Amino acid sequence: QVQLVESGGGLVQAGGSLRLSCAASGRTFSRYAMGWFRQAPGKEREFVAVINWSGRSTAYADSVKGRFTISRDNAKNTVYLQMTSLKPEDTAVYYCAAPSTGRPLLPLRIYEYGYWGQGTQVTVSS
């Protein structure tokens, strides 16, 4: 089984930055894409960003494009989400996720992911 542990969440003022980390174990990390999702109170869990196995291809939700950057360090079995220009609407629990298989290259849908971290809270004050 795959274990994912997020860290780096916290409280930040609007316009500020945070970097989330997700440490993975349990399978060969470098062979799989990794994604970030978030869920705000009263809202559905939504896609945020994904990075392919090599780190050479990424995709982002329109709501975060240009502000968030996903990256990975396969030597450390870790994926990151660098968040800048944070807005109050970014407030949510952020989840790291690993897909069930090696395809598609950049999975965008919740059902394509089989492994989830416990989540880390990001709160952006206005």
What would you say this structure looks like, in words?
The chain is mostly beta strands and 126 residues long. It contains no helices and eleven strands. Strands 2, 4, 5, 6, 9, 10 and 11 form a seven-stranded mixed sheet that branches. The chain is globular and about 40 Å long.
Indicate the topology.
Elements: E1 3-7, E2 10-13, E3 18-25, E4 34-39, E5 46-51, E6 58-60, E7 68-73, E8 78-83, E9 92-99, E10 113-116, E11 120-125
Parallel strand pairs: 2-11
Antiparallel strand pairs: 1-3, 3-8, 4-5, 4-9, 5-6, 7-8, 9-10, 9-11
Structure described in brief:
By secondary structure, the protein is mainly β. It has no helices and eleven strands. Strands 2, 4, 5, 6, 9, 10 and 11 form a seven-stranded mixed β-sheet that branches. It has a four-stranded antiparallel β-sheet with strand order 1-3-8-7, with no helix packed on it.
Strand content: over 45%
Query: What percent of the residues sit in helical stretches (DSSP H or I)?
Result: under 10%
Decide which structural class fits the backbone.
mainly beta
Order of helices and strands: EEEEEEEEEEE
Number of DSSP helical runs: 0
User: Sheet with the most strands?
Assistant: 7 strands, mixed
Q: What's the pLDDT, averaged over the residues?
A: 95
- The rounded Rg comes to 13 Å
State the separation between the terminal residues, measured CA to CA. Answer: 40 Å
Overall geometry: globular
Instruction: Tell how many strands the DSSP assignment holds.
Output: 11
* Unreliable residue stretches: none
